[in-house]
Amino acid sequence: MSESxxxxxxxxxxxxxxxxxxxxxxxxxAYHARYLHWAERARTESLRAIGLPHQFMMERHxxxxxxxxxxxxxxxxxxxxxxxxxxxxxxxxxxxxxxxSQTVRAAAEDGGGGERLAGLKVGLVxxxxxxxxxxxxxxxxxxxxxGLVVAEATRD
Length: 156
Prior knowledge:
Elements: E1 4-7, E2 12-18, H1 34-49, H2 54-61, E3 63-74, E4 83-93, E5 97-107, E6 113-128, H3 141-146
Antiparallel strand pairs: 1-2, 2-4, 3-6, 4-5, 5-6
């Protein structure tokens, strides 16, 4: 199972990972805050997979993406040694904001996603690196991300 698998047929990026001991509580279940960590890593890898990593935005445009809002709903726990998949879908891109849906799933035997474990709605905003004030999402990020928008109805 590779770590990061863009899927161009449905515009959903999939990031695979394993639940390690450090991710779990005393009961062997993934600690709730680890889902935020996994989602952050999946967002970073989704940008890298399209050839537009955060580092380029910072170096070339003195701008970065920050989380403005995040909502998490948990359905079932991931457990020690489980393989999970974080699916990232872009729902909307505006002048300075990106809205994402991320779903953490148990990994299915075919390498795809199985049962839903958690769902995240994430609002990102592009800000100036020094000022931290909103700035326009630079090109080519805006155009590329707009081309990857999926209908929310297609998500679980």
